[in-house]
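Record 1 of the preview.
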Amino acid sequence: MFRKKTLRDLDVKDRIVLVRTDYNVPLAPNDDGKTQSVASDFRIRASLPTLQYLLEHRAAKIILISHLGRPTGKDPLLTLRPVAETLAGLLPGTPVSFVDEVTGPEVEQAVEELPEGGILLLENLRFYPGEQANSADFAAELVAATHAELFVQDGFAVVHRAHASTSAITKLLPSVAGLLLEREVTTLQSALEQPGHPFVVIIGGAKVADKQPLIERFLPLAEHILVGGKIAADGYRSDDPKIQVAVDFDTDASGAKLDVGPLGLMHFLETLESAQTVLWNGTLGKTEDPAYSTSSTVIAKFLGEHPNITSIICGGDTTGFVEELIATDPALHFSLISTGGGAALELLTGQPLPGLDELEDL
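->
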């Protein structure tokens, strides 16, 4: 059960609603060499249910805030303007505007000029030091400039951070969860509290230190834990019969182990055949090189072609890889492709999530 209020618990009609989204999207350079465009709109599309709810329930104006990348000061290559352009294309008929500030008179004017039922995206929050400093003053300036009356936290990928747009802001406005945040938390918590069995966890990636807490967390809950990726290639071992480590690897000319081999992949697929719930964190090979993406591709397609399996994909590299597969094969279906790498990992391992914890309780 989701234990926080959501926007469904509020009357948003005729109110100015401030929404923290996660538009930290990949960008690709344009031909002019000076500007960039959105390379994947996955996270933008993930925000649409919350925005459409607000539009359908006649919020007066919707003000969106987000960060993008890790700028040090203002960086024109990390402006959110391309995101606003992409969002406008996804919401035909809805006025979508952009302003290259987050506080001050320019924002006030942009809010005033925004038509009823319109959406305004503010500039990259991380252009301003007050965001990551969790500055109460910065949050207050943001509220004052936007005239916001309600706050909706829908950026699941940032709720593990105590920033102005996740923590300080909640002290100033009625603060509830958006539909994306609710769905992500509910789905991930269900994997911890009431997964369908057999429950299989797939662990890949590079760092044992990052993955060991996840393995330990799921060991009492899952029937099987399948381990691939660099951690398996580097010699990860376990005596626990639940843990199945890849037994062979595809290698390059130097002998480096860069993907799970055919025998290990066959064993993994045999285990997955009976699964009811699968949680996957960490790719199984060096997927940036197509020659070593075979095992991850086969596993992703297996899960995506079996809608009877509750499939939860989390971790930045894994979700990005699966998103690319869906782009070429839209028929693939997964129960959840999480938008939050670090946030998902911290939720699953029981770490505090300030951006969630500080929302209003039911």
